[in-house]
Design goal:
The structure holds 2 protein chains of 2 kinds.
Chain A lengths: L1 E5 L3 H13 L1 H5 L4 E6 L3 E3 L4 H5 L9 E3 H4 L5 E4 L2 E5 L4 E4 L4 E3 L2 E4 L3 E3 L7 H4 L6 H13 L3 E7 L8 H15 L6 E6 L9 H14 L2 E3 L4 E5 L4 E4 L4 E3 L2 E5 L2 E3 L1 H5 L25 E3 L12 H21 L10 E8 L2 E7 L12 H18 L4
Parallel strand pairs in A: 1-2, 1-9, 2-5, 9-19, 11-12, 11-17, 12-13
Antiparallel strand pairs in A: 3-4, 6-7, 7-8, 10-18, 14-15, 15-16, 20-21
Chain B lengths: L2 E5 L8 H10 L6 E6 L4 H12 L2 E7 L5 E6 L3
Parallel strand pairs in B: 1-2
Antiparallel strand pairs in B: 2-4, 3-4
The chains are: A alpha/beta, B alpha+beta.
Protein backbone atom coordinates (compact mmCIF):
# COMPACT_ATOMS: atom_id res chain seq x y z
CA UNK A 1 0.00 0.00 0.00
CA UNK A 2 1.37 3.41 -0.96
CA UNK A 3 0.49 5.92 1.76
CA UNK A 4 0.99 9.58 0.98
CA UNK A 5 0.95 12.14 3.82
CA UNK A 6 0.47 15.78 2.84
CA UNK A 7 1.71 18.17 5.52
CA UNK A 8 4.56 17.99 8.02
CA UNK A 9 2.75 19.51 10.98
CA UNK A 10 1.55 17.83 14.14
CA UNK A 11 -1.18 15.66 12.57
CA UNK A 12 0.81 14.40 9.60
CA UNK A 13 3.97 13.77 11.59
CA UNK A 14 2.33 11.88 14.47
CA UNK A 15 0.26 9.85 12.00
CA UNK A 16 3.27 8.89 9.87
CA UNK A 17 5.45 7.95 12.84
CA UNK A 18 2.79 5.92 14.64
CA UNK A 19 1.88 4.10 11.45
CA UNK A 20 5.50 3.43 10.51
CA UNK A 21 6.12 1.71 13.82
CA UNK A 22 2.97 -0.38 13.48
CA UNK A 23 3.78 -1.54 9.96
CA UNK A 24 7.55 -1.92 10.24
CA UNK A 25 7.42 -5.43 8.82
CA UNK A 26 5.25 -4.45 5.87
CA UNK A 27 7.56 -1.52 5.10
CA UNK A 28 10.68 -3.71 5.27
CA UNK A 29 9.17 -6.29 2.94
CA UNK A 30 7.98 -3.66 0.47
CA UNK A 31 4.27 -4.25 1.08
CA UNK A 32 3.76 -0.71 2.39
CA UNK A 33 5.45 2.62 1.82
CA UNK A 34 4.97 5.99 3.54
CA UNK A 35 5.86 9.21 1.74
CA UNK A 36 5.46 12.67 3.29
CA UNK A 37 5.30 15.90 1.29
CA UNK A 38 5.66 19.21 3.08
CA UNK A 39 5.98 22.87 2.18
CA UNK A 40 8.85 23.30 4.64
CA UNK A 41 11.91 21.47 5.94
CA UNK A 42 11.06 22.80 9.42
CA UNK A 43 8.64 21.54 12.04
CA UNK A 44 7.34 24.24 14.36
CA UNK A 45 5.87 23.81 17.85
CA UNK A 46 3.26 26.50 17.41
CA UNK A 47 1.89 26.65 20.99
CA UNK A 48 5.29 28.04 21.94
CA UNK A 49 4.64 31.39 20.26
CA UNK A 50 2.74 32.47 23.40
CA UNK A 51 5.99 32.24 25.38
CA UNK A 52 7.93 34.11 22.68
CA UNK A 53 5.35 36.91 22.87
CA UNK A 54 6.00 37.17 26.62
CA UNK A 55 9.80 37.03 26.29
CA UNK A 56 10.00 33.59 27.89
CA UNK A 57 11.28 31.73 24.83
CA UNK A 58 12.98 32.52 21.54
CA UNK A 59 11.79 31.25 18.14
CA UNK A 60 14.73 28.92 17.53
CA UNK A 61 13.71 26.85 20.58
CA UNK A 62 10.46 25.94 18.83
CA UNK A 63 11.83 24.59 15.55
CA UNK A 64 13.35 21.26 14.50
CA UNK A 65 14.33 19.79 11.15
CA UNK A 66 11.27 17.82 10.02
CA UNK A 67 13.33 14.94 8.70
CA UNK A 68 14.96 14.48 12.11
CA UNK A 69 11.53 13.75 13.63
CA UNK A 70 10.52 10.99 11.23
CA UNK A 71 10.88 7.25 11.73
CA UNK A 72 13.46 5.55 9.49
CA UNK A 73 11.87 4.38 6.28
CA UNK A 74 9.51 7.35 5.87
CA UNK A 75 10.36 9.09 2.61
CA UNK A 76 10.30 12.88 3.02
CA UNK A 77 10.30 15.60 0.37
CA UNK A 78 10.03 19.36 0.67
CA UNK A 79 7.81 19.83 -2.34
CA UNK A 80 4.39 21.36 -1.72
CA UNK A 81 1.41 19.85 -3.49
CA UNK A 82 -0.24 22.14 -6.02
CA UNK A 83 -2.79 19.82 -7.60
CA UNK A 84 -4.92 17.11 -5.99
CA UNK A 85 -6.33 14.59 -8.49
CA UNK A 86 -8.33 12.50 -6.05
CA UNK A 87 -10.33 10.66 -8.71
CA UNK A 88 -7.08 9.44 -10.26
CA UNK A 89 -5.25 8.83 -6.94
CA UNK A 90 -2.35 11.16 -7.53
CA UNK A 91 -1.06 14.63 -6.65
CA UNK A 92 1.21 16.96 -8.55
CA UNK A 93 3.86 18.98 -6.68
CA UNK A 94 5.44 22.36 -7.24
CA UNK A 95 8.48 20.65 -8.77
CA UNK A 96 6.23 19.00 -11.34
CA UNK A 97 6.68 15.56 -9.81
CA UNK A 98 3.60 13.35 -9.62
CA UNK A 99 3.02 11.06 -6.61
CA UNK A 100 0.55 8.20 -6.90
CA UNK A 101 -1.05 6.67 -3.83
CA UNK A 102 -3.45 4.06 -2.54
CA UNK A 103 -4.26 6.15 0.56
CA UNK A 104 -3.75 9.88 1.06
CA UNK A 105 -3.75 11.75 4.38
CA UNK A 106 -4.25 15.50 4.12
CA UNK A 107 -3.09 17.50 7.14
CA UNK A 108 -2.12 20.89 5.79
CA UNK A 109 -3.25 23.01 8.75
CA UNK A 110 -4.62 26.54 8.87
CA UNK A 111 -3.28 30.08 8.58
CA UNK A 112 -4.12 33.36 10.28
CA UNK A 113 -5.56 36.01 8.00
CA UNK A 114 -5.66 39.36 9.82
CA UNK A 115 -6.09 40.98 6.40
CA UNK A 116 -9.65 39.58 6.27
CA UNK A 117 -10.73 42.30 8.71
CA UNK A 118 -10.21 45.83 7.31
CA UNK A 119 -7.54 47.64 9.30
CA UNK A 120 -6.67 44.73 11.56
CA UNK A 121 -3.31 43.67 10.14
CA UNK A 122 -1.75 47.14 10.24
CA UNK A 123 -3.15 48.15 13.63
CA UNK A 124 -2.85 45.08 15.83
CA UNK A 125 -0.38 42.54 17.15
CA UNK A 126 -0.77 38.77 17.29
CA UNK A 127 1.41 35.76 18.05
CA UNK A 128 0.70 33.25 15.29
CA UNK A 129 4.10 33.34 13.55
CA UNK A 130 7.70 33.77 14.70
CA UNK A 131 7.92 37.33 13.40
CA UNK A 132 4.53 38.27 14.85
CA UNK A 133 5.39 36.80 18.26
CA UNK A 134 8.70 38.70 18.42
CA UNK A 135 6.94 41.88 17.33
CA UNK A 136 4.30 41.23 20.01
CA UNK A 137 7.00 41.08 22.68
CA UNK A 138 8.63 44.28 21.44
CA UNK A 139 5.39 46.24 21.39
CA UNK A 140 4.31 44.94 24.78
CA UNK A 141 7.75 45.80 26.19
CA UNK A 142 7.46 49.34 24.82
CA UNK A 143 3.94 49.80 26.22
CA UNK A 144 3.87 52.55 28.83
CA UNK A 145 0.25 52.30 29.92
CA UNK A 146 -3.20 52.79 28.47
CA UNK A 147 -5.89 50.45 27.26
CA UNK A 148 -5.05 46.97 25.97
CA UNK A 149 -7.94 45.51 23.98
CA UNK A 150 -8.17 41.82 23.05
CA UNK A 151 -10.25 41.14 19.95
CA UNK A 152 -11.12 37.69 18.61
CA UNK A 153 -11.90 36.61 15.03
CA UNK A 154 -13.64 33.43 13.89
CA UNK A 155 -12.72 30.74 13.26
CA UNK A 156 -9.35 30.66 14.96
CA UNK A 157 -6.65 28.18 15.88
CA UNK A 158 -6.01 27.45 19.58
CA UNK A 159 -9.26 28.14 21.45
CA UNK A 160 -7.50 28.95 24.72
CA UNK A 161 -5.25 31.68 23.35
CA UNK A 162 -7.61 34.63 24.01
CA UNK A 163 -7.67 33.77 27.72
CA UNK A 164 -4.03 32.75 27.93
CA UNK A 165 -2.81 35.94 26.27
CA UNK A 166 -4.93 38.05 28.59
CA UNK A 167 -3.68 36.37 31.75
CA UNK A 168 -0.07 36.40 30.51
CA UNK A 169 -0.20 40.10 29.57
CA UNK A 170 -1.70 40.90 32.96
CA UNK A 171 1.33 39.26 34.59
CA UNK A 172 3.71 41.03 32.23
CA UNK A 173 2.25 44.46 32.91
CA UNK A 174 1.99 43.83 36.65
CA UNK A 175 5.62 42.72 36.85
CA UNK A 176 6.65 45.99 35.19
CA UNK A 177 4.71 48.07 37.66
CA UNK A 178 2.31 49.38 35.05
CA UNK A 179 -0.91 47.83 36.31
CA UNK A 180 -2.24 51.09 37.75
CA UNK A 181 -1.71 52.78 34.37
CA UNK A 182 -3.24 49.97 32.32
CA UNK A 183 -6.79 48.90 31.58
CA UNK A 184 -7.47 45.45 30.10
CA UNK A 185 -10.54 45.15 27.90
CA UNK A 186 -11.37 41.66 26.62
CA UNK A 187 -13.91 41.07 23.88
CA UNK A 188 -15.35 37.75 22.73
CA UNK A 189 -17.69 36.66 19.89
CA UNK A 190 -20.39 34.87 21.92
CA UNK A 191 -22.32 35.70 25.06
CA UNK A 192 -19.67 34.58 27.57
CA UNK A 193 -15.89 34.94 27.87
CA UNK A 194 -15.07 31.54 26.38
CA UNK A 195 -16.72 29.03 24.06
CA UNK A 196 -16.57 26.29 26.71
CA UNK A 197 -19.25 27.08 29.25
CA UNK A 198 -17.35 25.59 32.19
CA UNK A 199 -14.16 27.41 31.21
CA UNK A 200 -16.14 30.65 31.01
CA UNK A 201 -17.59 29.97 34.47
CA UNK A 202 -14.05 29.66 35.82
CA UNK A 203 -12.52 32.55 33.87
CA UNK A 204 -15.17 35.20 34.53
CA UNK A 205 -14.53 35.52 38.29
CA UNK A 206 -10.79 35.44 37.53
CA UNK A 207 -11.31 38.45 35.25
CA UNK A 208 -13.37 40.18 37.94
CA UNK A 209 -10.71 39.53 40.56
CA UNK A 210 -7.96 40.90 38.31
CA UNK A 211 -9.98 43.93 37.23
CA UNK A 212 -10.10 42.81 33.58
CA UNK A 213 -13.14 44.31 31.87
CA UNK A 214 -14.96 42.34 29.21
CA UNK A 215 -17.58 42.71 26.51
CA UNK A 216 -19.25 39.67 24.98
CA UNK A 217 -21.16 39.30 21.68
CA UNK A 218 -18.41 41.30 20.03
CA UNK A 219 -17.36 40.18 16.53
CA UNK A 220 -14.87 42.59 15.04
CA UNK A 221 -15.95 44.07 11.72
CA UNK A 222 -13.18 46.57 11.09
CA UNK A 223 -10.43 48.52 12.81
CA UNK A 224 -10.31 52.28 12.45
CA UNK A 225 -6.60 52.91 12.95
CA UNK A 226 -6.93 56.67 12.64
CA UNK A 227 -9.21 56.84 15.66
CA UNK A 228 -7.70 53.77 17.37
CA UNK A 229 -11.07 52.06 17.55
CA UNK A 230 -12.28 48.54 16.81
CA UNK A 231 -15.84 48.22 15.54
CA UNK A 232 -18.07 45.17 15.87
CA UNK A 233 -20.76 43.58 13.72
CA UNK A 234 -23.10 44.05 16.67
CA UNK A 235 -22.67 47.82 16.53
CA UNK A 236 -20.08 48.15 19.29
CA UNK A 237 -17.03 50.41 19.24
CA UNK A 238 -14.04 50.07 21.57
CA UNK A 239 -11.09 52.45 21.83
CA UNK A 240 -7.63 50.97 22.25
CA UNK A 241 -4.05 52.00 22.86
CA UNK A 242 -2.70 48.54 22.08
CA UNK A 243 -4.85 46.13 20.05
CA UNK A 244 -4.15 42.43 20.54
CA UNK A 245 -5.77 40.24 17.93
CA UNK A 246 -6.65 36.62 17.55
CA UNK A 247 -7.13 36.84 13.78
CA UNK A 248 -9.67 34.83 11.82
CA UNK A 249 -8.18 31.76 10.12
CA UNK A 250 -8.61 29.84 6.90
CA UNK A 251 -7.31 26.52 5.68
CA UNK A 252 -4.53 26.45 3.13
CA UNK A 253 -5.01 28.11 -0.22
CA UNK A 254 -4.17 24.91 -2.11
CA UNK A 255 -7.22 23.22 -0.55
CA UNK A 256 -9.52 25.98 -1.78
CA UNK A 257 -7.90 26.18 -5.22
CA UNK A 258 -8.44 22.47 -5.73
CA UNK A 259 -12.08 22.76 -4.71
CA UNK A 260 -11.68 20.41 -1.75
CA UNK A 261 -13.38 22.64 0.80
CA UNK A 262 -14.78 26.11 1.33
CA UNK A 263 -12.25 28.39 3.03
CA UNK A 264 -9.79 25.50 3.03
CA UNK A 265 -11.77 23.27 5.42
CA UNK A 266 -12.43 19.83 3.95
CA UNK A 267 -15.79 18.14 4.72
CA UNK A 268 -14.85 15.21 6.95
CA UNK A 269 -16.71 12.34 8.57
CA UNK A 270 -16.57 12.97 12.32
CA UNK A 271 -16.03 9.29 13.23
CA UNK A 272 -13.96 7.76 10.41
CA UNK A 273 -12.06 10.98 9.54
CA UNK A 274 -12.49 10.14 5.86
CA UNK A 275 -13.26 12.93 3.44
CA UNK A 276 -16.97 13.15 2.67
CA UNK A 277 -18.01 12.56 -0.94
CA UNK A 278 -17.45 10.09 -3.74
CA UNK A 279 -13.64 10.14 -3.66
CA UNK A 280 -13.30 10.06 0.12
CA UNK A 281 -12.90 6.31 0.59
CA UNK A 282 -9.08 6.49 0.49
CA UNK A 283 -8.73 10.07 1.75
CA UNK A 284 -8.19 10.84 5.46
CA UNK A 285 -8.28 14.39 6.80
CA UNK A 286 -6.53 15.42 10.04
CA UNK A 287 -6.19 18.46 12.27
CA UNK A 288 -7.18 21.98 11.35
CA UNK A 289 -7.89 20.91 7.76
CA UNK A 290 -11.19 19.21 8.70
CA UNK A 291 -14.47 21.08 8.81
CA UNK A 292 -15.42 19.30 12.04
CA UNK A 293 -17.07 21.45 14.74
CA UNK A 294 -14.25 20.86 17.21
CA UNK A 295 -11.25 22.86 18.38
CA UNK A 296 -8.56 23.72 15.87
CA UNK A 297 -5.74 22.69 18.16
CA UNK A 298 -2.66 20.54 18.19
CA UNK A 299 -4.20 18.03 20.56
CA UNK A 300 -7.13 17.53 18.17
CA UNK A 301 -4.67 16.70 15.40
CA UNK A 302 -2.76 14.44 17.79
CA UNK A 303 -5.76 12.35 18.86
CA UNK A 304 -7.13 12.18 15.32
CA UNK A 305 -3.71 11.03 14.09
CA UNK A 306 -3.62 8.25 16.71
CA UNK A 307 -7.03 7.00 15.59
CA UNK A 308 -6.14 7.19 11.90
CA UNK A 309 -2.78 5.44 12.33
CA UNK A 310 -4.36 2.60 14.29
CA UNK A 311 -7.06 2.20 11.67
CA UNK A 312 -4.75 2.28 8.64
CA UNK A 313 -2.44 -0.26 10.28
CA UNK A 314 -5.44 -2.45 11.03
CA UNK A 315 -6.71 -2.20 7.45
CA UNK A 316 -3.28 -3.32 6.22
CA UNK A 317 -3.05 -6.17 8.73
CA UNK A 318 -6.62 -7.43 9.19
CA UNK A 319 -8.60 -5.75 6.46
CA UNK A 320 -10.74 -3.28 8.38
CA UNK A 321 -10.49 -0.27 10.74
CA UNK A 322 -10.76 -0.86 14.48
CA UNK A 323 -12.14 2.33 16.01
CA UNK A 324 -13.82 5.69 15.53
CA UNK A 325 -12.55 9.12 16.53
CA UNK A 326 -14.52 10.18 19.61
CA UNK A 327 -13.86 13.93 19.36
CA UNK A 328 -11.21 13.93 22.09
CA UNK A 329 -9.44 17.24 22.73
CA UNK A 330 -7.07 18.18 25.57
CA UNK A 331 -6.02 21.80 25.98
CA UNK A 332 -3.79 23.27 28.64
CA UNK A 333 -4.87 26.71 29.86
CA UNK A 334 -2.08 28.96 31.15
CA UNK A 335 -3.80 31.01 33.86
CA UNK A 336 -1.07 33.46 34.84
CA UNK A 337 1.33 33.61 37.76
CA UNK A 338 2.81 30.22 36.91
CA UNK A 339 -0.48 28.45 37.31
CA UNK A 340 -2.38 26.44 34.73
CA UNK A 341 -5.38 24.20 34.32
CA UNK A 342 -6.72 22.15 31.42
CA UNK A 343 -9.86 21.30 29.49
CA UNK A 344 -10.43 17.75 28.27
CA UNK A 345 -13.59 16.86 26.37
CA UNK A 346 -15.02 14.84 23.50
CA UNK A 347 -18.22 14.69 21.44
CA UNK A 348 -20.19 13.39 24.43
CA UNK A 349 -18.57 14.89 27.52
CA UNK A 350 -17.98 18.57 28.27
CA UNK A 351 -14.83 19.61 30.13
CA UNK A 352 -14.77 20.08 33.88
CA UNK A 353 -11.78 22.40 34.42
CA UNK A 354 -10.26 22.44 37.89
CA UNK A 355 -8.77 25.39 39.72
CA UNK A 356 -5.34 26.31 38.25
CA UNK A 357 -2.28 24.96 40.02
CA UNK A 358 1.46 25.31 39.84
CA UNK A 359 1.74 21.59 39.17
CA UNK A 360 -0.26 21.77 35.93
CA UNK A 361 1.82 24.76 34.82
CA UNK A 362 4.99 22.79 35.55
CA UNK A 363 3.63 19.90 33.49
CA UNK A 364 2.81 22.28 30.63
CA UNK A 365 6.36 23.65 30.71
CA UNK A 366 7.68 20.08 30.68
CA UNK A 367 5.35 19.21 27.80
CA UNK A 368 6.78 22.12 25.80
CA UNK A 369 10.07 20.20 25.86
CA UNK A 370 8.49 16.76 25.60
CA UNK A 371 6.58 17.82 22.50
CA UNK A 372 9.36 16.51 20.27
CA UNK A 373 8.79 13.04 21.69
CA UNK A 374 5.08 13.52 21.05
CA UNK A 375 5.72 14.47 17.41
CA UNK A 376 7.76 11.28 17.07
CA UNK A 377 4.71 9.38 18.29
CA UNK A 378 6.38 8.31 21.52
CA UNK A 379 4.19 10.22 23.99
CA UNK B 1 -29.70 31.88 -2.72
CA UNK B 2 -28.31 28.81 -1.10
CA UNK B 3 -29.06 26.84 2.06
CA UNK B 4 -26.37 25.19 4.11
CA UNK B 5 -26.59 22.79 7.03
CA UNK B 6 -24.07 23.11 9.87
CA UNK B 7 -23.89 19.98 11.99
CA UNK B 8 -22.63 21.21 15.38
CA UNK B 9 -23.97 18.28 17.38
CA UNK B 10 -21.53 17.33 20.11
CA UNK B 11 -19.57 20.54 19.67
CA UNK B 12 -18.45 22.02 22.97
CA UNK B 13 -15.59 24.06 21.52
CA UNK B 14 -15.92 26.15 19.43
CA UNK B 15 -19.59 25.33 20.00
CA UNK B 16 -22.72 25.80 17.91
CA UNK B 17 -22.94 29.61 18.03
CA UNK B 18 -19.29 30.10 17.03
CA UNK B 19 -19.80 27.57 14.21
CA UNK B 20 -22.86 29.53 13.08
CA UNK B 21 -21.01 32.85 13.15
CA UNK B 22 -18.05 31.41 11.21
CA UNK B 23 -20.36 29.95 8.58
CA UNK B 24 -22.43 33.11 8.21
CA UNK B 25 -19.24 34.97 7.28
CA UNK B 26 -18.96 32.67 4.24
CA UNK B 27 -22.58 33.25 3.15
CA UNK B 28 -24.18 35.85 0.90
CA UNK B 29 -27.09 38.07 1.91
CA UNK B 30 -30.32 36.08 1.53
CA UNK B 31 -28.68 32.69 2.07
CA UNK B 32 -30.14 30.50 4.80
CA UNK B 33 -28.49 28.20 7.31
CA UNK B 34 -29.82 25.34 9.40
CA UNK B 35 -27.84 24.72 12.58
CA UNK B 36 -28.01 21.29 14.21
CA UNK B 37 -27.17 21.47 17.89
CA UNK B 38 -27.42 19.20 20.90
CA UNK B 39 -26.75 22.14 23.23
CA UNK B 40 -29.99 23.39 24.74
CA UNK B 41 -28.35 26.80 25.16
CA UNK B 42 -28.36 27.25 21.37
CA UNK B 43 -32.12 27.78 21.37
CA UNK B 44 -31.52 30.96 23.37
CA UNK B 45 -28.07 32.24 22.45
CA UNK B 46 -28.45 31.93 18.66
CA UNK B 47 -31.60 34.12 18.53
CA UNK B 48 -29.91 36.61 20.87
CA UNK B 49 -26.94 37.03 18.51
CA UNK B 50 -29.07 36.99 15.34
CA UNK B 51 -31.24 39.77 16.76
CA UNK B 52 -28.30 41.84 17.94
CA UNK B 53 -26.56 41.75 14.55
CA UNK B 54 -29.75 42.16 12.54
CA UNK B 55 -30.05 38.85 10.73
CA UNK B 56 -33.33 36.95 10.55
CA UNK B 57 -34.55 34.00 12.63
CA UNK B 58 -36.70 31.62 10.56
CA UNK B 59 -37.65 28.85 12.95
CA UNK B 60 -36.47 26.70 15.84
CA UNK B 61 -37.56 23.17 16.67
CA UNK B 62 -36.32 20.18 18.61
CA UNK B 63 -36.65 16.72 17.05
CA UNK B 64 -37.44 13.47 18.84
CA UNK B 65 -33.76 12.71 19.39
CA UNK B 66 -33.14 15.98 21.21
CA UNK B 67 -31.38 17.82 18.37
CA UNK B 68 -32.24 21.47 17.91
CA UNK B 69 -32.80 22.61 14.31
CA UNK B 70 -32.35 26.37 14.12
CA UNK B 71 -32.86 28.10 10.77
CA UNK B 72 -31.63 31.62 10.11
CA UNK B 73 -31.23 33.93 7.11
CA UNK B 74 -28.34 36.30 6.50
CA UNK B 75 -29.92 39.74 6.17
CA UNK B 76 -26.96 42.12 5.82
Amino acid sequence: MRILVIGGGMGGTIFANLLARRIQHEMKTGKARITMLSASHEHVYQPGWLYVAMGRATPDELVREQESLLEPGIEFHVDPVEEFHLAENHVKCKSGKVHEYDLIVISTGSRPLPEKIPGLKENSINCYTADDAVNFFKQLSDFKGGRIVVTVGLPHKCPMIPLELTFAMHDFIKDRGLLDKTEFYYTYPIGRVHSLENVAKWATPEFDRMGIKYETLFNMKEVDGKNAEVLSEEGGAVKYDLLVAVPPHKGQEVIEKNGLGENGWIPTNRASLHMEGEHGKNVIILGDTTNLPISKAGSTAHFEAETAAENVAAVIKIGRPVRSYDGKVFCFIEAGKDRATYAMFDYQNPPQPKAPTGAVHAFKMAYNKLYWASARGLL
Amino acid sequence: MSERVVDARGSFCPGPLMELISNMKMMSVGDTLELLSTDAGSAADVPEWIKKVGHEMLDTEQDGEGTWHIRVRKAK
